[in-house]
Amino acid sequence: MILPLFLLLPAAGAPDLQAVVVAGTTTKGMPFEGRITRVAGSVLQMESVISGTAPQIGLPMEGISSLRLVVRQATDRTLLEMLEPFLPVLPLLDGESLDRLVGELEEAAARGEWRFLYQWSGRLLGTLRDPGHASRIALLRAWALLELGLREEAVREAGKLAGKTDPLTAPSSLCHLMARLETDPDIRKFWSLLPSLQIPANPQPTTYDLRP
Amino acid sequence: MNRLQCKPLYLLLGLLLGSMAQAVLPLRDQWGSACAALKEGDAARATALFREFREWYGEETEVADPAFREGWLRLWGLAALQSGAVEEALPLLETWLREFPEQPRYRAFVRFQTALACRSLGLRDETIHHWTAFLEQHGTLPEAALVRWMWADLLIGEARLEEGREQLMAVLEGASLPPSGRALARAALALVELSLGSEEAAFDHLALSTGKEAFPAHGLWKALLAPALTDRLMRMDRLAEALEAASWMDLPENLESGFSQLAAAISERRPSGVRSMVWNKHWDRQVRRLQATLETSNKEGPGGAGLYALRLRALLRAEEAESALVLARALLLSPSSLAVEARPAAYAGAIEACRMLGKWNHASRIASEFIRDFPEDPALPEILFQLARTHAARKDWSDAIGQADKLLDNWPGHRSRRSWQTAAASWRLQAGRPAEALEQFLALESDAPPSWTPYLRFQQGRCLTASGKPNEAARLFSGVANNPSAAAGLREFAWTELLKLAMRDSAADRFPSLLEDYRKGFPDGIHRLTVENLAGTWNLHAGRKGEAEQLFQSVAKHIAPEGLFAHEQLSRMYGSLPDPGSLRSHAIGWIRQALSAGLALPPRPFEDGRLYQERTGQPVFPAEMCRTLLERMEADDPSFPAETFLGLLASGWHAYREGLGLPGEPVLEWARGRAEACLRSNLPLACSRYRLFQAALLERQGRSDSADTVRIGVMRSADPSLLGESELFTVARTSDRYDFPGTVPLLESFLARFGQSGKRPEVLFRLAMRRRASGDAQAPGLLGEILAEWPDAGVFPQACLSLGEWRLADNQPARAGPVLERLLDRPGLPPETTARALLLRARADFATGNLERASLGCRRLLNLYPDFHDIINIARSLLDEHA
Prior knowledge:
By secondary structure, chain A is of the alpha+beta class. Chain A contains 7 helices and 5 strands, in the order E-E-E-E-E-H-H-H-H-H-H-H. In chain A, helix 3 (114-127) packs antiparallel against helix 4 and helix 4 (131-147) runs antiparallel to helix 5 (151-164). Chain B is mostly helical. Helices cover 76% and strands 0% of the residues of chain B. The A-B interface holds A 166-169, 185, 189-190, 193-194, 196-201 and B 223, 247-251, 254, 304, 307-308, 311, 315, 322-323, 326-327, 329-331, 333-336, 338-339, 721, 749.
């Protein structure tokens, strides 16, 4: 009998389950590494890549201490897109992995993909505990709000961020955003001139400069 | 010489062995062992074996054979060098160089290494001998740059900086360095220039090393030298360069980590080949030298807070007041420890920036905040002095002097006391108290260092001039002008004062000779144009109009404030001539000059144009210029005198519209059409200008309501921050007249942006009325500014009357009197204004107990102004009440 092999191929648009490889340790100190296949309830299903362990493992999420994104197979999709079916793992990701995700968000912002940015910044902000990453994402979200025409919300978000930021170290993208949002000419001038006056000086952005 | 430095040699030695060992068969074993040791990388053992070889076989004939001896000496010398036995290696290599001058192979390498060996042993002359020979024989090799660079390092280490500079210049002239190397060489050169006191050259080297020469070390170098360079350039008044250098600064911790990363990256490089190793070693040495410089600079340098304070000072010196205010605000808002450390500088900077921007009240508020919150801060006296300077800037001389005197009483030994005394004396002079000023300058002279004397004598001369003692003043000015140890600028100032005195006294005998002396003494003087203007004025007063015209014309060619003065003098001269042709030519030439220099267009030539059109009925501007001016106006240039220019077009419209290709077009329609076109082209300022012009045309037709409707339209649609002076004034006035809610911000915005505007007093008056209505205690201060600074303004009488009334209403009759007296001293007051002022003064006098003058004032009102019933009724009641 000839098997309809094409049925074994993933359907177009389905998540590439093989692409997201994570490593980490359990709360009991046991290391693990594998490709995420599924998140069912509060259990993370993986195909282990460590020889000598069971090929399929399932770890309760509360038993995972931290998770690191290890490898990404060559694909057109971004890490964020690939992580979409596995959103519950987001709170477990370590700082380095979050850096990669925020980097992808910044690239999306530079490409002007504001809807994508809005959606993902919301997801990440809902799960992150680290204030450093949270403020970077909140800044991107404020940009997205502005670009999507939600000016008042952008003013509120950016205002909160600006209130918490030391002006001497404020990222130029925040200054640029505040200069665009502010209506008072004096305050607008403050934010637009600030980056070039900090030490070290940041040049004035000519377009959307979203690098922190 | 350390092991790392000799590493390249080993590679070279490995390449040379084989054939040499085969050449001397009887000695093969001994020779072979040495070569084997070299192959194994054991240079010390090889050296010992070579040494034994000489002891055992040194006298053999085969060993003396040049074919063998050449290789033997070279390998032994290089092996000894690699093993650290530099004293042993050096004679061997020098012998090799001497005995085999025709040997081209390895010669450059051996010479290079021999020079390094000499240098490591401190043999300066020998080192230079080898470097010289290297450059002569191998000047085309890339390592020639390296040799010159090492030579420069040697000279710099000996403090022979100028010779070191020459060598580094030669490094840059060679084409062999990569861009990153050139950036480093330029940075090293900048440091030498800075040490030589050539700040401009240092700046040029660092500023040049950008773009193609981008290299991490380059940015770090710039940041490292930036504070010293900024400070020194400021001292030289090279303010634009100082500001640029200040923009290169970086925090010490960033520099430390940057240099560490750079040094680590260079150390980790694994270059292949001898040449790469030699160069890598050089870069490593250079970067480590930079690190050492950084360590010193971090110990002695200004630190993060000091860097911010220096940057703030550079901004203020360059008159970048808005940027300075932003930076000072950022420092005051920052919770960092760095900002706390920089707090006094931030407060002082914010006050100074506000003062420069004409934000007097803001400056006073900031100073008061510091005084309230940090009364024990050691910087308090400096902040109080800044407050005094703020009073002085708004010409509130008595508060300024009082504040300075208090400072001198409370901190008599302060290091800045002489500056305070100098300032207080200058303010006394400006306040019309020259005798007190003179006394203070004389007291200073007995206390200050001798270098201050010429300046103090100059100021004493000014005091004497103001006291009506021109001869004594001239003697002092003459002393300063002829004092070769006085600063050149001050000497020139003294000359100009002498010339002014001579002109004032109409001293026909003295002025020409003084002028001649000045021209000879200061052919390129910085006050040359001022003096030529004085000469022009002198000739004009003497009736020599032709000579005066010539002089003013020569000054007017210059793009400078003196040029503007000369232009205005010419305007006056031509305006008084019966033929207005010269006035027109001058106005057109003046506008052309400003257009070609890209300068703001002054209003005066447009006023002259209006005069020309009124007198001749002809259009003043040719069609081509008219089009150019329209383009300039529509290009949203906020300084363009649009109101006058469009007024000119309107008054000569029949002629202008032909030139503009608009036959038959009514001016109102044209203005409306242009407004719409500018709106479509996103030219908001031009659109507002045309619409306000339209309003003026409607007003002229008697359609005031329609005119105001258009103005209100502009007010509702235009961004006030984009409007020019005239437009913003019209919009703010309209808003005030119709009591729109945004009036106060519009008036405040005008005051903040156009501090020197002639419309300022009217705006101050309107704002004061609004503030008073809302119970704001600062309202009298606004009227006070009109009284202090705008005595010729149209609103001056109204301001005096209102302030007098407010003082009475606030139960401060003693403060009302002087205000009203100032008004009553003014000639040519309308009768009703005089009557109102007399009434208010009478009320103040009754309240303060000056009953005699009060009664006299009331009776004067009853006798002189019987028609002003409301006023005399009150006067009569007052008399009855106090009878």
